[in-house]
Every structure is written in structure tokens, then in C-alpha cells.
């Protein structure tokens, strides 16, 4: 066995390279994509600054169904759902996308109201909403937020799951000052896994002109856990949804199917 200094240095270099590679395969990043950069021969590996590794791809023969990515001047989009891609991670089997659906409802003391109704995001069978990396958020006072998800059971029968959270505050002074959603102006909850499509809605739990005078609007959405930070000004801002006109980040799990690795 050769234990010369040169061999020892080579082992250190190899170890360092291995650690760097392991780090790059677990962290999100424009260049990492959770793996060594890989693509089909003759195919583009990036759309703007977004890496597109196989089985995702853009262009004929560059992807495995249904991982076709549409690339244009505004960004990369999953063709099956038309949501914008933020990052693809091969190691974790995740793709971060932009969720464009923020449900909102406004009830004013003068009796007028407006809303954008149900906000539905339908995914193809190979993508599921991550129940570990996302949370359901509702903003407002005396506000009830609802999320309804659709999935398939063991016998491939569709079933519906529903979850909710309630945000309670009686006046502006009772709104929580922290950035966390603890139920005073903002609430959050988790939801079951294996959801292939979901809708969110929100509205007042109480018809109270006193509350409507300082918090006329409510909002609900699904967002990547840890990304959203609550601000008490959100409860009296009728333009909250316009603050995120492009949506909020969302994490999807994906699988290539019930097939062999080869």
C-alpha cells in the first residue's frame, strides 16, 4: 500500500471534492438542480438562469412525459400546469414553482363586497403538493381560510380532503406584532399529503361592521414554509394580493412513475 505524501494529498483532494459534490446535490441553487448538470444530447440545459435537468427538458426529444418545460422570454414553465419554475432538485425529487393563486375576499362596512372566488391549481399525476415543505396561510380578522385538496386512494378512487384555519382579532390593537402566523391577524396550518390538485378560499367568519372598518379583506394561499413573513399592516391593506401579483413560491414533489430505475 502506497502511503506516500502525494497519495495522502490526493485522498484529501478527493474527500474535499466529494463533500463539495454532496453539498451541491442537496442545496437549492440556479446551478445545482440537486445533481450534476445533465441533459439529453443536443438539448438546452438552462432556461434563463434556471437549470433544466433530465427528465425535465425543453424541446422535442429533450424530456420525459410529462416533464416538458416551456421556455420563453418571461421564464420557464411546467407545460402540464403552466406554473412558473423557480428551481428543480433531482436529489430531493422536488420542483419549486410560483403559485399564482391567492384567494381574496373583501367586505366593506357600506355593504359592498368583492372576491376572486375559488382558486384552483390542478397538477398532472406525476406532481403532488408537498405536505412537508408548504403551509396553508390565511390573513385577516375574524377570517376563515379553507383549502380543499383532491387525491386518489389505494384503489385509485378520487377523494377530497379539507382543512382550515381561523384568524381572530377584535380590533387593530389585538393583531399580533410578530412575523409568525399564530391566529391573531394571520393563521397557518398543514394539510394531508398526496394532493394532486387543490383550491383555496377565504371569507369572514363574522359579519361585523366594527371589524370590517379596519380589516375589510381576507386572503388565503399555499406557500413554501418559512418564506412568508406576516406584517400587521396586511390586515388593513386592500392591495395585499397585488403585492404578489406573480404569486408565491410553492414546493411540489415529483416522480417519473412506477418503473425501474433503468
UniProtKB/TrEMBL annotation:
Name used for this protein in its record: Uncharacterized protein
Native source species: Avena sativa (Oat)
Upper taxonomic lineage: Eukaryota, Viridiplantae, Streptophyta, Embryophyta, Tracheophyta
